[in-house]
Design a protein that fits this description.
single chain, 313 residues, alpha/beta, Lambda Exonuclease, Chain A, binds iron/sulfur cluster, PD-(D/E)XK nuclease family protein, ATP-binding, DNA repair, helicase, PDDEXK_AddAB-type
């Protein structure tokens, strides 16, 4: 879906003074009747960036050189630290997957960026460690996931999708083992079944995992570590197909916008800004003429107040 530009009348130059290098700068494919269209190579975050705000997509994936990002966010550091600690917990031999190992694992993976000061960082470390201890208490150390931070990939008529899952479990199903997509969440707000159902990323992971492992994969779960809750959804073949179709529609919109820029359309019109609450948390707020007019957040703000929760973050 194309959205109207929100920050300026049509026809003016880019707000950052940058002209994105259109993809036509890449070696051009010569077309002929019946030739299949180039597949759109994507990840969940690439699709999500465009769906949230085409301008943010442009800053991230089209403009070259890319505009400078703002400083790192403390909540991203916290999330990355917890994810890597869990990944490394599964890399331990089974007899060492014990709660006592967690402090060392977290220390070894701790990302320090974005915190207001040492006291806030120490408090975040304590909080993360308590989440991890409570979480691994719910896990059977002897159960090996099918994949940990495993990349799954699939092609459709439009997409060449790839994405890194947090974890893929195998659980008994009525007709044998079935795969479950597990996604860890560390935001301070809880998530519910609607978030699991609506997550395009989880659905695409499930769709891809089913094809990579040739086993049914319909269940998706959001594991919210701060509250110890699990939000789950059982997809059907039809609901997964709908999510894939939605992703393909987004990919078509992106390719159409990129073609328009290559054909001379002003990049600000092809990739309109869609301002909202998320602008305060956007890496490109300082270079975005629309976002710059809206209040920004400090890199550590989410440590005091949570960002708007989304199932994709
Ligand atoms: S600041 Fe807001 S409008 Fe600008 S790119 Fe970011 S999300 Fe889009």
């Amino acid at each position: 879906m194309r959205r109207p530009s929100a920050d300026r009348p049509a026809g003016r130059s880019s707000g950052t003074g940058r002209t994105p290098r259109p993809r036509a700068d890449q070696p051009e494919q010569l077309g002929f009747a019946g030739m299949p269209e180039r597949l759109f190579v994507c990840t969940p975050s690439k699709l999500g960036a465009y769906e949230d705000c085409p301008r943010r997509y442009r800053y991230s994936y089209v403009d070259r050189p890319a505009p400078p990002k703002g400083p790192p966010w403390a909540h991203n550091s916290l999330g990355a630290s917890v994810h890597t600690a869990l990944k490394n917990w599964y890399a331990l031999p089974v007899d060492r997957r014990r709660p006592e190992a967690l402090a060392g694992l977290l220390k070894g993976t701790w990302v320090r960026d974005g915190y207001r000061d040492d006291a806030q960082e120490r408090e975040a470390f304590r909080r993360a460690l308590s989440w991890l201890e409570a979480y691994v208490d719910t896990l059977d150390p002897a159960t090996e996931p099918v994949g940990v931070e495993r990349v799954v990939a699939v092609k459709t008529a439009v997409l060449a999708f790839n994405g890194r899952t947090d974890r893929i479990d195998a659980r008994p199903g009525p007709d044998g083992p079935e795969l479950v997509i597990v996604d860890y969440k560390t935001g301070r707000s809880g998530l519910d079944a609607d978030d699991a159902r609506g997550s395009q990323a989880l659905a695409l992971y499930a769709y891809a995992a089913e094809r990579v492992f040739r086993r049914p994969c319909r269940r998706v779960e959001l594991h919210h570590l701060p509250t110890g809750t699990v939000a789950a959804h059982e997809h059907t073949v039809e609901s997964l197909a709908r999510q894939v179709g939605r992703a393909e529609d987004t990919a078509r919109d992106i390719m159409s916008a990129e073609r328009a820029v290559a054909d001379g359309t002003d990049p600000d019109d092809a990739f309109p800004a869609v301002p909202g609450v998320r602008c305060g948390w956007c890496d490109y707020r300082r270079v975005c003429p629309t976002g710059a007019q809206l209040p920004g957040r400090e890199p550590w703000s989410a440590m005091e107040r949570p960002p708007e929760p989304t199932a994709e973050s």
